[in-house]
Design brief:
- The complex is a heterodimer.
- By secondary structure, chain A is mainly α.
- Helices cover 66% and strands 10% of the residues of chain A.
- Chain A has a 3-stranded antiparallel beta sheet.
- In chain A, strand 2 and strand 3 form a beta hairpin.
- The relative contact order of chain A is 0.11.
- By secondary structure, chain B is an alpha+beta fold.
- Chain B contains 9 helices and 11 strands.
- In chain B, the strands form 4 sheets. A 4-stranded mixed beta sheet of chain B has the order 6-7-11-10.
- In chain B, strand 2 and strand 3 form a beta hairpin.
- In chain B, helix 2 packs antiparallel against helix 3.
- Classes of the chains: A mainly alpha, B alpha+beta.
- Chains A and B meet through helix 3 and helix 4 of A and helix 2 and strand 5 of B.
C-alpha cells in the first residue's frame, strides 16, 4: 500500500482531491493508525484521475462519467472478443 | 522533413493569445488524450502532435523562434549552433522528456533539439509511464499446458511464461514493459488479456471440461470398454451395461488444470450419445424383432 500523503507530495496535489475521489466512490482508501493508504492495484487508476483533473481540467463529475463510460467500453470489448471466438468456431469448425 | 504548422494543428490564428493557445490545446487534449482513448494509436499520434504544438506555442521564446524560422527551418541551424554555444558556455543546456514517449517530429527536433515537457509543466511530478494493453489468443490446448511465448511489444521482444489453466478474458501484468516513466517516474506495465478460442469437442466451465461421446447401441446395452481422447491423452473408460442415452459420467481429475496449482485438475464430464445401428442385415433385423417380442 502507498501512503496518501506520500502520493500527494510526489505528485504535488492536494489531499482534498483524493478525499473527493473517495467520497465519489472512485477509489477506496484504507485507514491504518490515522494514516490513509491506497492499494497499489488502484494506483494506475488514481494517476489517471490525477491527469484528467489537473492536466485536462475535467471536474469530478466529468471524471465519474468518463470512468463509467470507459468501464462500459471495456466490458463491450470483452463481449466482442467472446463473440469473435464463437464466430471463429463456426467459420473454421476444424 | 515537412514543415509543421502548429497554429493549424491547434486550429488557431497566428495572432492567438496565450489564453487562446491554452484553450485550444486543452480542448483538443480532452479529445485525444490517451487516457480517454485506450489502445487507439491514431488518437495517441494526434495527441503527440498537439502536445508538440502546445510545447512551442505556449512558450514565448520557442514561439518567437518558430515564428521567425518556422517556414524556413533550414536557416534555424545557424541560430541553433549559436544558441548551443551559449548554453555550453553557461552550462545550462537542459532537455526534458515528453510524457507520452519521445515522438516529437523531425521538424521539432531540428528547431528545438530533444523532446520537451508537455503536461506536468506546472507540476514537475514523477509519473509512471503509460500502461500498454495487448490481447493474446490461445487455443484450449495451449491453455492446458504451461508454456512460453515470445511477444513483440513496440519492437521489443518479451518472453513470457503462460501458466496452465489460464482463463478466457484473464489479464496478467508484466511489470515495467509499458511506456517510459515521466520525469524519472517508473515505467508503465504491460497488461495481456488472454482470449481462449472455443474448442470443437470440449466445453470448459471453470476447471471442468464437458464432452459428448458417441456410444454404439450394443456396448450401451451389454457394457464394455471404450477409449476416449482427452486433452491429456487417451483414457480407457468402462461402460456399464444398460447405459441410457444422455447419461453422464464423471472422470475425476481429467479436466482442466487449476491455474497456478500444480497437479490439481478439474473433472471431465462425459455425456453418452447412443448411436442406433444402420444398414442392418435381414438377420440382424430379425433378431431385433425377436427382442421386441420377448
Amino acid at each position: 500500500m502507498v501512503a496518501i500523503n506520500d502520493f500527494c507530495a510526489g505528485h504535488e496535489i492536494e489531499i482534498s482531491f483524493i478525499s473527493s475521489l473517495r467520497e465519489s466512490g472512485l477509489i477506496e482508501i484504507t485507514t491504518i493508525s490515522d494514516s490513509d493508504y491506497i492499494e497499489k492495484g488502484q494506483l494506475v487508476q488514481l494517476e489517471r484521475f490525477v491527469r484528467l483533473y489537473y492536466d485536462l481540467d475535467i471536474n469530478l463529475e466529468g471524471i465519474e462519467t468518463i470512468n463509467y463510460l470507459l468501464q462500459r467500453m471495456n466490458s463491450m470489448n470483452d463481449e466482442i472478443r467472446s463473440l469473435k471466438n464463437k464466430l471463429r468456431l463456426y467459420e473454421n469448425p476444424d | 522533413m515537412d514543415y509543421v504548422d502548429y497554429y493549424k494543428l491547434l486550429g488557431i490564428e497566428k495572432s492567438a493569445t496565450q489564453k487562446d493557445v491554452k484553450s485550444a490545446y486543452r480542448k483538443l487534449a480532452r479529445k485525444y488524450h490517451p487516457d480517454l482513448n485506450p489502445n487507439d494509436k491514431d488518437a495517441k499520434r494526434k495527441f503527440q502532435q498537439i502536445n508538440e504544438a502546445n510545447e512551442v506555442l505556449s512558450d514565448p521564446e520557442k514561439r518567437k523562434k518558430y515564428d521567425q524560422y518556422g517556414k524556413d527551418w533550414q536557416h534555424s541551424e545557424q541560430f541553433e549552433q549559436q544558441n548551443q554555444y551559449r548554453q555550453q558556455n553557461t552550462g545550462q543546456k537542459k532537455y526534458a522528456q515528453s510524457q507520452y514517449g519521445e515522438d516529437f517530429s523531425d521538424f521539432f527536433e531540428s528547431l528545438f533539439g530533444g523532446g520537451a515537457s508537455g503536461f506536468g509543466k506546472t507540476r514537475q511530478a514523477k509519473f509512471r509511464g503509460e500502461d500498454f494493453n495487448a490481447e493474446l489468443q490461445l487455443d484450449l490446448e495451449d491453455a492446458f499446458t504451461t508454456h512460453k511465448r515470445t511477444l513483440n511489444v513496440n519492437g521489443a521482444k518479451i518472453r513470457i511464461t503462460i501458466p496452465a489453466g489460464i482463463e478466457n478474458g484473464q489479464t496478467i501484468k508484466i511489470p515495467g514493459h509499458g511506456g517510459k516513466g515521466i520525469n524519472g517516474g517508473p515505467d508503465g506495465d504491460l497488461y495481456i488479456t488472454f482470449s481462449i478460442t472455443d474448442h470443437a469437442r470440449f466445453k470448459r466451465l471453470g476447471n471442468d471440461l464437458y464432452a459428448t461421446v458417441d456410444l454404439d447401441l450394443y456396448k450401451a446395452v451389454l457394457g464394455g470398454e471404450i477409449t476416449i481422447d482427452t486433452l491429456n491423452g487417451k483414457v480407457k473408460l468402462k461402460v456399464k451395461p444398460e447405459t441410457q442415452n444422455g447419461s453422464k459420467v464423471k472422470l475425476k481429475s481429467k479436466g482442466f488444470p487449476v491455474y497456478k496449482k500444480e497437479g490439481l485438475y478439474g473433472d471431465l464430464f462425459i455425456t453418452y450419445n447412443i448411436k442406433i445401428p444402420t444398414n442392418l442385415t435381414e438377420k440382424q433385423l430379425e433378431l431385433f424383432r425377436q427382442l421386441s417380442q420377448s
